[in-house]
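Minutes, structural biology subgroup

Action item carried over from last meeting: produce the structure token record for Ultraviolet-B receptor UVR8-like (Gossypium armourianum). EB confirmed the sequence was re-checked against the source entry. Recorded below for completeness.
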Amino acid sequence: WGRNQNGQLGLGTTEDSPVPQKIKAFQGISIKMVAAGAEHTAAISKEGALYGWGWGRYGNLGLGDRNDRLVPEKVSTLNVSQQASKIYLVHISIFTSINRGFYQ
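Output recorded by EB:
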């Protein structure tokens, strides 16, 4: 809930939300970690898949372009050895992999 100018709530709109809402894109997916920046958000599934959504102007969603996303989208550039284990967001996105690699 809260501000949603760039779709960072993952609800498919840019309307602010005064109450918590379920993110439909994660139906059937178990999420183990979420990190929220001011304008973008990222999540890691229990399987190690990384998702990004919200403000993508500088490529900070890891999706290969600079477009905003209104719903979570899986980062497809990761391979098995790069499964995400932790994520950190401020103005950039950083994640560590299960084999202790560090990606920015």
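Discussion: The chain has one domain: 24-103.
Next step: EB to file the record with the rest of the batch.
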